[in-house]
């Protein structure tokens, strides 16, 4: 399987994992990119904070960190770390369900590997549009 899920500390509300793992390569296909392998690691705030400090020199909580492991021009390999604590807090703050927010963040990480950025307002707008597109495609 090209997509794998690992759970550290906390198991998220993530039903129908097989369907989600089968859907994620669709994102890369629709973005005209080849996916070799993708690993999602679902963890706690503290676990992700340690990664944020060690690898990015950022001392703050975040919901997701995406690492590209492949060389440019080759099929995509990546690791995506998602804090379940942040997802729960974000869902509460945004007035959405944990299920929807978790799927949005899962797709967000895949989109980063597809080349989407989220630093400028224009980039954020494009990222949100793509997230919405794939959420709609997935949930129908």
Characterization of this structure:
With 140 residues, the protein is α/β, with parallel strands linked by helices. It has one domain: 3-Layer(aba) Sandwich (Collagenase (Catalytic Domain)), CATH 3.40.390.30. 51% of the residues lie in helices and 19% in strands. It has five helices and four strands; from the N terminus they run E-H-E-H-E-E-H-H-H. Strands 1-2-4-3 form a four-stranded mixed β-sheet, with helices on both faces. Strand 1 (3-7), helix 1 (17-30) and strand 2 (35-43) form a beta-alpha-beta unit. The longest helix is centred in the last third of the chain and has 19 residues, at 121-139.
Gap between N and C termini: 24 Å
Can you tell me the CATH architecture? Answer: 3-Layer(aba) Sandwich
CATH homologous superfamily placement: Metalloproteases ("zincins"), catalytic domain
Residue stretches low in confidence (pLDDT < 50, at least 5 long) are: none
Q: How confident overall, as mean pLDDT?
A: 95
**Domain module tally:** 1
What order do the SSEs take from the amino end to the carboxyl end, as H and E?
EHEHEEHHH
- The tally of helices reads 5
Percentage of residues assigned to helices: 40-55%
* Structure classification: alpha/beta
| Structural shape | globular
């Amino acid at each position: 399987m090209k997509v794998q899920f690992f759970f550290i500390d906390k198991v998220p509300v993530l039903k129908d994992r097989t369907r989600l793992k089968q859907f994620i390569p669709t994102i890369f296909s629709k973005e005209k990119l080849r996916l070799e392998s993708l690993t999602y690691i679902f963890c706690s705030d503290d676990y992700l904070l340690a990664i944020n400090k060690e690898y990015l020199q950022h001392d703050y909580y975040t919901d997701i960190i995406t690492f590209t492991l492949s060389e440019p021009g080759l099929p995509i390999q990546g690791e995506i770390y998602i804090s379940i604590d942040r997802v729960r807090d974000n869902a509460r703050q945004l007035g959405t369900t944990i299920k929807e927010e978790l799927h949005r963040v899962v797709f967000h990480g895949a989109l980063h590997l597809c080349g989407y950025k989220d630093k400028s307002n224009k980039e954020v707008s494009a990222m949100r549009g793509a997230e919405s597109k794939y959420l709609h495609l997935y949930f129908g």
